[in-house]
Fold:
Amino acid sequence: MGPRTGWVEPGSGWVVRPRAGRVEPRAGRVRRLATPLGILAAVTAAFTYVGTVDPNDPGHYPVCPLLKLTGVFCPGCGGLRSAHAFIHGDLGAAFSANAVATAGYFLFAAVWVLWLVRAWRGRSLRIGLAPAWWWGIGALLLIFTVVRNLPFGSALAP
Structure:
């Protein structure tokens, strides 16, 4: 690389990071992308398994302990059925099984894409939520759990 031009010889194994103005090895980019791509591989494997082994057939998955002991649906109840329907393209059934989980799939996809783009550009992904947001998320899950267990919220039950 010339000291002032910023050009890199093709095939040299080095990349110029325009914002930082410095050179880094290509292996650095591969290493930065390894974690988001590894997470994608793990999530894809899990969804492939759930898409293949139907949770509607008894005996394949354990019963929710809270449901078994108390008869109350937790916020995660119906999540496997939701994932199965989501994989098969039935968004109505996915929302019917667990609306929060289905919304979570879309949220995960959006955050994952943001993470991948930032990793590609050499930036880290920092999502810092104020405590009020965490309390709000907890309140939303609590309200969802209570409503899905009441007679008028039976549409939210799996």
